Amino acid sequence: MTTPAADRVAAAHRRFAKAALSIYVAVATIAVGLLVAGLVTDRTHDEDQLKHQLLLETRVRSRLLAEHLGGLTAELERLARRAEVDFSDETLGPERALLDVAHGESELFDLGIAIVDREGKVLWAEPREFIPRGNEFGDSLWFQSLKRSHLIQVVPVEPDAQDAALFLVAPVVRDGEFTGALVGGLDLAHSRAGLRLVSQPDVIMILATASGDVVYPSVPPPFAQRPAWRELFAEEPRFGLHELDLGGSEAVVASSPLPGGELVLLAFVPEDALFAAISQRFTSRLVLGVGVAVLPLALLVGLLLRLLRQLGPVTRQVVAEERLRRTGEAVNVVAHEVRNSLNGLKMGLDLVLRTPKEPSPRVVYQLNAEIDRLGSFARQLMLFAKEPKPALRKTDMSALVDESLQWVRETCVELGVKLRVTRPEGPLSLEVDPDMIRIVISNLVLNAIDAVTTQEGGPLEIEVQLEIGDRGFGLSVEDSGPGVAPEIRADLFEPFVSGKPSGVGIGLSISRRIARAHGGDLRLAPSSRGARFELQLPSGAR
Predict the structure, then answer these.
(1) What domains lie within the chain, and their CATH numbers?
(2) Is this structure's pTM higher than 0.85?
């Protein structure tokens, strides 16, 4: 008997197989049809087709290059809006750290990234040799335009500055005032936007300005010095097919301006290379196209039919086993926690009933603690069952930590555990959901108490440390216990994984989900003793 989940998976497999076959057949049919159409056309039509194919490829490449530059532009704008980029504090520490991360962890600005002040003077570059410190762009036309428009600029680099390079320049604007700029360098010859990959080996790709100045390659071809080259850029429209005399031979030129910029991408192909052996090439394409389309199609059909027959029973078995395993784990967790709490409540209630006088404060405390523990477990189960959605509000993190630790301090005193809290001076205000963060802190501290009290010998110490820095707010909980066993480190934050014999295994999983819902993270950090967990939260509201 199949289950709805297994039926849905099997139906999805069938839809995927049908879609794959349909796409393959459609693509193969179109490809073979185009090849046959090319063979029955005359020589003039063939030549026109090749010209327009070259034009289309050039246009696609220009759009891809424009999209790549657009991605770089968005990244540079994002960096310019970062709070670390603030030239009014008269220190470059945060900006230098941001540039180091942006250049070191990103493949976007492969030449480097630099900071320029409001006068056009280079304050810092990463790497330093990208633009030497002290260079000035204040008199450059692009810098003056940047100050006036507050719009990002795509700037071709002078030939003696960087080979085959482009500068992307983003203004840094604070309170409507231009305070400086970020400059990112792109190497067209070696980056992902490199133009060496072309469909025909005889094609020469050139990137130039609207006035005809060559940006790429770094050494312009000889024909770029001819008068016909400048005349090419005077023609309208600049997007289209042109003829260019290369000195004894004619070349087909396809040109396409990059959308949204003043750059033009051009493809040059000698006519004799473009139109050579048309019949031979088309015939071989037809034979290969039909063979490539028909033979893999037959193999694909047979393979998909075989896989579909095998996937049905396997899918049903896997879905059933996974559902049974998850159900068993959840039932075991709930039963274990509820049983422990009920045992504690029963023992406390027995003491109250057996004692004719008023119960001792300790018994009342234990009863309240078990009730609180059961309530906390119920709240965590609710968080575990759905994605946390923080209700952010401005919170004093120092006071929140004190509140979270208040109810465990008495437990630490009774068990002989030394609890130490270190924090920086001044306010530690943050936009968080205090109830959720309180759960994270409680889980980390309770785990630390269990770790130090279950070990044999050794100091019983727990240190909670608060800090605020460029990365945001940080809270670490470090204990003097035996540490996390190596065999569970990789899966420590997975549900139902615990290093304690009586552990539930959902506390750390829920805590990490809460941290990430706030835009931060929770990780197990290296420690010279015991275990150290670090909670990192962004300094601003999400």
Answers:
(1) 41-276 (3.30.450.20), 389-537 (3.30.565.10)
(2) no
